TrEMBL record, chains A, B:
Gene Ontology BP, a term: prolyl-tRNA aminoacylation
Organism field: Stephania cephalantha
Gene Ontology terms: cellular component: aminoacyl-tRNA synthetase multienzyme complex; chloroplast stroma; mitochondrion
Name under which the protein is recorded: proline--tRNA ligase
Region Disordered, residue ranges: 58-91
Catalytically driven reaction(s): tRNA(Pro) + L-proline + ATP = L-prolyl-tRNA(Pro) + AMP + diphosphate
Cited HAMAP family: Pro_tRNA_synth_type3
EC class name: ligase
Length: 570, 570
């Protein structure tokens, strides 16, 4: 695998053309993203909004180099498309260690997880990527219902005036809004916000529905799309429109709201560990990083393969901030009118990006079995025509048995590709287990099993019995083993990249090495912002798990109650 | 139950105030809707767009009468809210036979299926209504996957220029578009359409993904929200934003596309009959009524309780209309470039409205067991304190047994309400089966079962054994019986309201009686439009089931190949 950056997402033939030229030394991920945008701009010129243009000029230090790779005319693009497709079919992916961002984009393109939409910053989630999102939904949906939440649906158009009602909320969201100003051919009297999140409209409705303490707790959730006009986008991680679930609850007491906010972050944490094999660190956000409108924000923070942090899910204790703004009251048992106490919590399609960036390797995607759309792929191998039906029959029967036992299995019996090509292809797609069946295997009633997470012969077991119950037990064990192994590997990686620091210079050193820094913190918001400006790192959280003993703030030397974790983040 | 119209949806306290005044003689459903809008306008004055104002004046014949019921000041609204809530808690619902529209809105409010959003024409789908939608999703999602479709997600923002590419598509949709013109605080260079449907963006992407005949068929589906700037809205039936699934497929031959379009309308038909107990009539749309951009549209048409038709699902053979507009081509086996043949098909939250309007009665909602969020409600009955624990224990054990066997059961053990109140409440919510357990039942090891669809003592069975396996079998049988019975009743109603006609005067007579007219048709589009103007009825479909023998067009007397069904519709 070369280090050549190949942003091979289907739409951007032009980007691929640029990549075919020699790589630019020291090109940062940000500038690579810029190239994609610039090319998108050329292909669909009228779609580009003014804010894009301004970013373009801000980052103009890169533009001279980029101009050297102006896009070829359409015919050449077509040819390049074919060239790129050929390479993709050969499993070409940038080196993960040398160009993490290029690797990420290549994996997304090659594994057909997503593609760019025609509007800058939007993303099409392709079936294989969407199936991962469905696995996330299936698990969480059950947990939400078990804990007493009902699904429902709020409209996505929110009157602009609603957004203005909660002071810090409007401050946080107004720069990112998409506004509908025309409906049915006429200009609207009030602009409509395409929801960036739903606290305001939820409270508007809660105010109609909640009257008495008997109406509480009110606990709902919706699976929906949301829109935030982001300037720097990246598939899954940050897109103009994304999919998420947003839970919203109202309670009679602050204690109940706090308990709910903690319960939900714990559900997210358990999902991350048990299903996605991502050893997140759970904690509380600093005041600076708290959600716009919340009293307290809990978060799960994941370490990606490039050691940047990804905020993978959040749960907010909203206090009475929104109920005060919207007058959401109830009559308590003694007949007094009280404002409700609220929470909201969300996980989005960003989590799919987290899965890719936690487990993938130079070969491509690597999926934890519990969220893999395909857990086992069967590749039949034959040379002579008379071997074919024998091998295929055995493969079909293995497929049927595994499917019946609840394993997600795919038989790749296409005749256009060689077994070797199929091996590479399904490894790149991150399928945890491969079963190979050849003529000799059929004769001996056995098959070969390969693990995606252990490369080469070391991950291969020959002579596994085809006998149904033995095979099913064996495969299920293997899947469990892979699931644990991926989590263990990620824990080891995480722990070896967190440095305990006791001074600002140690913090700066750790961050400059690309690591996370953990140290006692009781300094001001201003000092927190200074760290951000000087190092690029932010407080990811005050982790729930805290060391014992007295602590001194790494910045001020004053006593500190807690350690904080600092890191650069997505 | 009185005939008083009570549009008691939570948000519209003002509407309720107007309704408390004497009803206006001969007020049509359209004018009732107008009242809701007008009040909405008063409550959130800045939200009303200009198109609303223009409609208002078009329908100004009603405005004098309506002005007499101007909304009370806020304090009075609060009081009226309480009054309305009290009535709702007593199960007050307008008479279905005398005021079908008022009845429909009351059922939606009382059963807490939906509420109005703050923006005109938008709807909040509340948990009980959303659970019906989830039952629809659960069934169809499995069927879609069984027939080879994958879920995915396309962005909702579509460049305006895309909509213009297919001539009849732009003509059909451009009056209904919501447009985003501002993003991130800046005016956009090209307006973005909030998707009214996704054919254009789907084709834009298909063009990138489809290269060879080996890429076909491409069969995908998405569950999504869509926006159409409708002037006359009605909860579930027609709202500014609604939820749906939209399937999109591309094929190598016209025969495959036609087969797919038919397969999907058949899946919808089967769903309607088997799950929703709605005996739809399946057929082909006339040219006039065909989807904007389709070559052929298939439809399932349902007869509502007021005998108006509801188009409940459609499947379109798009031919090469969109592939031509977007250049969606593939290389066939002989190396020739060909345009793909396509389909699209959709069912929306409108179907929930169809379920309400097919099965409900004066008591409220009536849900077919297979799509009911709660299939069985258990109401424990006790008077003395010492009876309570005995009865509750028995009820809990019955609940547990039914739940374990897969029945959706709810135990209503709240102490704030009498058993009588609970009976009415859960009947209004349409729960198919009620189980009553009192002290004497517990002593004899039996319970009482009541059917929602058979009122009074006739629907009650005493002395049903509590013994687990007997009870479970009994309840499952009962649910099946109710499911069949609802379908049978709907079939009888439908068939007694379709009239075979052989002349235009017979057609007019049938339509004026509120019935559907079925007769041979081979006349022109102009004559079809004349029928619409003169009678208010449109061709709902040319049904797949056709009578034998030669036919003469009811309008022209010329030979006709097929009979068409004419009806007024939603």
């Amino acid at each position: 695998m070369g280090a050549l950056r190949l942003p091979s997402l289907t739409l951007f033939a032009a980007a691929a053309a640029a990549a075919a030229a020699p790589p630019l030394a020291g090109r940062s991920p940000a500038s690579s993203l810029l190239i994609l945008r610039r090319h998108q701009r050329r292909r669909v010129p009228r779609l580009i909004s003014k804010p894009f243009a301004s970013i373009s000029s801000e980052l103009s230090t890169h533009s001279a180099a980029e101009k050297a790779h102006s896009p070829p005319p359409l015919e050449e693009e077509e040819a390049e498309n074919d060239e790129r497709r050929r390479r993709r079919q050969e499993g070409f992916i940038s080196s993960r260690s040398q160009d993490f961002n290029g690797w990420y984009l290549d994996v997304i393109a090659n594994a057909e997880l997503a593609d760019y939409g025609p509007v800058r910053g939007t993303m099409v989630i392709r079936p294989y990527g969407y199936a991962i999102w469905e696995a996330i939904q299936d698990y969480l949906n059950v947990k939400f219902k078990e804990t007493g939440h009902s699904n429902m649906y709020f409209p996505q158009f929110i009157p602009y005036s609603f957004i203005e009602k909660e002071a810090s909320h409007v401050e946080g969201f107004s720069p990112e809004l998409a506004l509908v100003t025309i409906g049915g051919g006429k200009e609207l009297e009030e602009k409509l916000v395409v929801r960036p999140t739903s606290e305001t409209i939820v409270n508007h409705m809660f105010t109609q529905w909640i009257h008495s303490h008997r109406d509480l707790p009110l606990m709902v959730n919706q699976w929906a799309n949301v829109t935030r006009w982001e300037m720097r986008t990246k598939p899954f991680v940050r897109t103009l429109e994304f999919l998420w679930q947003e839970g919203h609850t109202a309670h009679a007491t602050p204690e109940e709201a706090e308990k709910e906010a903690l319960q939900m972050i714990n559900i997210y944490e358990k999902f991350a560990y048990d299903q996605a094999a991502i050893p997140v660190i759970t904690g509380r956000k600093s005041k600076v990083e708290t959600f716009a409108g919340a009293s307290r924000t809990y978060t799960i923070e994941a370490m990606m393969g490039d050691r940047k942090a990804l905020q993978a899910g959040t749960s907010h204790n909203l206090g009475q901030n929104f109920s005060r703004a919207f007058g959401t009251q109830f009559t308590d048992e003694s007949g007094q009118r009280q404002l409700v106490w609220q929470t909201s919590w969300a996980i989005s399609t960003r989590f799919v990006g987290g899965i890719i960036m936690t487990h993938g390797d130079d070969t491509g995607l690597m999926l934890p079995p519990r969220i893999a759309p395909i857990q086992v792929v069967i590749v039949p191998i034959w040379k002579k025509a008379d071997e074919k039906s024998m091998v295929l029959n055995a493969a079909l029967s293995v497929e049927k048995e595994l499917k019946t036992s609840g394993i997600k299995v795919k038989l790749d019996d296409s005749e256009q590709r060689t077994p070797g090509w199929k091996f590479n292809f399904w490894e790149m797609k991150g399928v945890p287990v491969r079963i190979e069946i050849g003529p000799r295997d059929v004769s001996s009633g056995t098959l070969v099993i390969s693990r995606r997470d252990v490369p080469g012969k070391q991950g291969k077991v020959f002579g596994v019995s085809m006998e149904s119950s033995t095979l099913i037990a064996y495969v299920k064990d293997k899947l469990d083993e892979i699931q644990s192994s991926l989590l263990q590997k990620a824990i080891t990686f995480r722990d070896s990249n967190i440095v305990d620091v006791s001074s600002y210079s140690e913090l700066k050193e750790a961050i400059s090495q690309g690591k996370w820094a953990r140290g006692p913190w009781s300094a001001s918001d201003a000092e927190e912002l200074k760290v951000k400006v000087e190092t690029g790192a932010t407080i990811r959280c005050f982790p729930f798990e805290q060391p014992n003993g007295t602590k001194k703030c790494l910045m001020t030397g004053n006593p500190a109650e807690e350690v904080a974790i600092f890191a650069k983040s997505y």
